[in-house]
Each structure stands twice: as C-alpha cells, then as structure tokens.
Amino acid sequence: xxxxxxxxxxxxxxxxxxxxxxxxxxxxxxxxxxxxxxxxxxxxxxxxxxxxxxxxxxxxxxxxxxxxxxxxxxxxxxxxxxxxxxxxxxxxxxxxxxxxxxxxxxxxxxxxxxxxxxxxxxxxxxxxxxxxxxxxxxxxxxxxxxxxxxxxxxxxxxxxxxxxxxxxxxxxxxxxxxxxxxxxxxxxxxxxxxxxxxxxxxxxxxxxxxxxxxxxxxxxxxxxxxxxxxxxxxxxxxxxxxxxxxxxxxxxxxxxxxxxxxxxxxxxxxxxxxxxxxxxxxxxxxxxxxxxxxxxxxxxxxxxxxxxxxxxxxxxxxxxxxxxxxxxxxxxxxxxxxxxxxxxxxxxxxxxxxxxxxxxxxxxxxxxxxxxxxxxxxxxxxxxxxxxxxxxxxxxxxxxxxxxxxx
Length: 407
What we know:
Elements: E1 9-15, H1 21-29, E2 47-53, E3 57-63, H2 71-83, E4 90-95, H3 102-114, E5 118-122, H4 132-140, E6 145-147, H5 156-166, H6 169-172, H7 179-182, E7 187-191, H8 205-216, E8 220-224, H9 229-234, E9 242-245, H10 250-256, E10 263-265, H11 266-274, H12 277-285, E11 295-300, H13 311-324, E12 329-334, E13 347-350, H14 358-370, E14 375-377, H15 378-385, H16 389-392, H17 397-406
Parallel strand pairs: 1-3, 1-4, 4-5, 5-6, 7-8, 7-9, 9-10, 11-12, 11-13, 13-14
Antiparallel strand pairs: 2-3
C-alpha cells in the first residue's frame, strides 16, 4: 500500500518556463511523469509524483507551471504555482546560469519568508557554463546549489544527495501521534464507532495511523466500539494509559471512562500532530465570542461526498448552534481550495488534515493568524461545544495550561 501524503516529504519544483523543471523531475524519478517540450508553458497544472527517495523514504514531487507565465491564462497558472508553496516542505528552484535574475531572487525571498528550506539547480550545465560570480554570491549567503543537465543525466545523483542533505529535520525526526503519551509496554484503548460514516470494510486513516504508531513504539493497543468500552476496561488488571475516541462519541466515552484515565480524541491528537495544538485551543475558546448571524468557515481536507449525519455539514453546525443559542452563517469548503479573504469569518473550524502534510496545515494556521481569525479543529470544537474541553485536554499539559491561563 502506498504511504499517505501526510507521511511524504513534499518537494516543490519551481522556476521559469522552459528551464527544465519537468526534465529534472523525469530524471529524478526515472519516469516520464511530466510532458517535456521545447515550447514554453507546457506544464499547466501542478503535476504530482509520489516515489521513494532513499534513505529519506516516501516523498511527493510537485512540478509547477512557469513562474513567469504571461497573459490571463498564464496568470491563473502562476496562481496555482504560488498555492503550491503552502504544501512545500522542501523547495527546488530550477534555473540556468544564463537566465538567473529577478524571478529566482523573488523565489528565494518567498522561501526565506516562509522558512522553507530550498536548493537551487542550475540546469542545462552542458550548454551554459558556471558563472563564478553567481555561485560565489550564493556560497556567501549559504544557499545550497548544484549543476545538472537533465537531458544527459549529468549531476542528477548530486541533486538527489543534496535533497537528502537539505530535508527539514522535523520531517526526519517526526514526533509520534500518541505513543509518547502511552509509552513502551503500556496500553491504549481506541474507541472506533461503526456507523453510517465508517467506510465499509476498513478503518479511517487516523485510526490506522494511531494503531501503527503504538505498535512501532512497543505499546499495546485495544480497539473497541463505544458500547464495548466498559467491558474492555473491566478486563484490564492495570488501567490503560490513554483512551482515544472518535470525537462524535465523546459524550458516551467520557461517561464510561474513569476520571483518572486520560481521554482525548483522534482529531485532537491530529491537531497536535499536523498543526499547532495550543493555537487551536485558543481558536476553540473563540466559540464563546460567537453571536447569532456570525460567519463560520468549516474546512474539510478530503473531497468525499457527505452522507447522512455528516460531521462537518450537519453535526458540528448543530452543536455550535445549540451552544450559541442562535443560527450561524456557515460555509463549507473541501480540498485545497481556501478563500482568499477569510477576514469576514469569526471562526475557522478545520478537519484533522490526516491526508495532507503538516506544512499545508501550518500554512492555513499562518494565514488565519495573519487575518486575525481564530482557527480550531473538529475535535476541539466538539469537546468545547459539549462542555468536556478540559477533560479532552488532560493528556496535554501545555495546551491545558493555555486554556486555564486564558479562560
């Protein structure tokens, strides 16, 4: 089975038209992933290619349209290219010694502003010889670079090594989802309701990832449905270190869990794993400021078709309305689309983003912060609306302290 995108290092390939971005991607992957042509502007929409880049492991290359595209259609292509910054963990600027100039300097500044590590690839080195003035300047500011020729496969192994050397440390040393809260030789109970929204014949990704995380770190794991929790607890001769529930079963699971056993939800675990838990705790506290008629944005990373009592379009709006005591104006969006003007919203509520990489979620948090709009996630919203917020934050002392100090 392929590794999900959330575990893949996202490598964005940027540059002008016809500098060889697609040729570089094809050479790296040793496949004809992107169409290569002498005609400038061949790549229109970002092209994704998952692969294994050893010893890093799973990565996702994203080939983008030329940053110098022109015209009305070209402007739209550039906008899509710029959106790729939001999910780029490691940037690659492809250029050559003849074309180096303002566009490349702007890309460098964008990466620096966003604190995204990047490298520069001087392609077509068989045609354009090295410009010592350019490379010396880059060396002086400690910008990593490499010379290649994708057409004759020159320097590709050096490029691959440079990518490995530049990968962000937080990707290599990624924190666990929940195993650090449990510990080796200890047990966790995962409460997984099987209802209309549960996919037939399988578990959803956060549940699978949590099980694997526990196993990888030598912890025990028991998976039960919500009505089986009490019976499961009675069979333990030593209490589990943690109980994790689907947020929709929060009330029942809270009622059945002894207060001395820490309890949280999969969604809240992913607020920490994929985003910034303390920031999202502050966002949830903004629920108290909502008034009838306020605009709320509910954002879902997946593009699945909602069914029945869908959590994002039905349940959370209902719980929020009950909490506020009046009707709210709620907008729902799915996928990578995100409104340019979010300042009109009083609150943004996001899913756990289990299908994305962490950089994408952190980019949305950054945009919300810049617009001064509080952002939280599904699990935190549900816990706050149902009056069990402090209980759900019990496993996270730092986040709990944020709630207590700012409440």
